[in-house]
Amino acid sequence: MNATVNRQILLVEKPTGKLGPEHFRLTQGAIPEPKDGEALVRARYISLDAANRAWMHGATYRAAVEANTVMAGGSIAEVISSKDPSLKRGDIVFGDTGWQDYAAVPAKHLAKMPKLEPMTHLLSVYGVAGLTAYFGLLHVGKPREGETVVVSAAAGSVGSIVGQIAKIKGCRVVGIAGGKDKCHWLTSELGFDAAVDYKDGATYKALRAAAPKGIDVYFDNVGGDILEACLSQMNNRGRIACCGAISQYDGVPSAHGPRGVPGLIVVKRLIMQGFIVMDYMDQRDTALKELQSWVASSKLKVQEDVIDGIENTPQALIGLLAGENRGKRMVKV
Prior knowledge:
Layout lengths: L5 E6 L12 E6 L8 E10 L2 H5 L14 E2 L3 E9 L9 E5 L5 E5 L4 E2 L15 H14 L6 E5 L6 H10 L3 E6 L2 H9 L5 E4 L5 H8 L4 E6 L3 H8 L2 E9 L18 H8 L2 E4 L9 H13 L7 E5 L4 H9 L6 E5 L1
Parallel strand pairs: 9-10, 9-12, 10-11, 12-13, 13-14, 15-16
Antiparallel strand pairs: 1-2, 1-4, 3-5, 3-7, 3-16, 5-6, 6-8
Helix pairs in contact: 2-3, 2-8
Pfam families: ADH_N_2 (PF16884), ADH_zinc_N (PF00107)
Keywords: Oxidoreductase
GO molecular function, one term: oxidoreductase activity, acting on the CH-CH group of donors, NAD or NADP as acceptor
């Protein structure tokens, strides 16, 4: 790599409909100089998440991404130089570097990562995806042995881990995913008890057959019609962990969310809670120890979808929103 050039991908225009390649532009900038308290880092793997698309709509748990700025995104990066005593050259960190080779980032906004191989696991099972699955399921969903857990976007980075943790905890697990191949993969490779193909169009009926005793815990990644189908089949005192709303991110959001929600929540005494993984970072070490032990004992399989080249990042995000990936999608810079 030419160490005098910083390749950057800009969001040149905020999409009003579906995200397309025309909304991005690859450009070259200068390598920034870190100020006091900052570190210069070089991105190694850029994380791709449905949330990238949500940030274009407006402020969420972070500021909105504005037109003609470097597209925002987290990455695993290597410290090149540091003007903060907490970081040194060669340290591996996770932070919001944006879609570019190099970034100068305040050290307090960088999380120092353990030196693990493969490094990609720091973005998947030991990164935001794995921690989101862990805390969302265990701290918000609170599954008990023998209960039925349903997870949507089950073949994605978070959903595929949620289902496997629920199995480890002794639950019956049903995944909802798009396409027969993904559904077969969930049951044959990841050990899900059943899988529902939402592209078949008969989600409600298929869900009833897959979860005949009703749903105790629903881990929601998509919102919209699938959330509605699951809500109506929740058992009394069921828990719903609201992680994302992919169905609402790309293109024009549907006019309605789930209908009949207030009545169902009251009658069935449901708990429906949103969460952000950052809320649980004080417990990260405990979670990582448990995740590492499950991976080491092959109870938890790690699926990653690594795409080469920073220039392919826009297309990789567009593909992720269309459901192309299995497991955690990332770009090797």
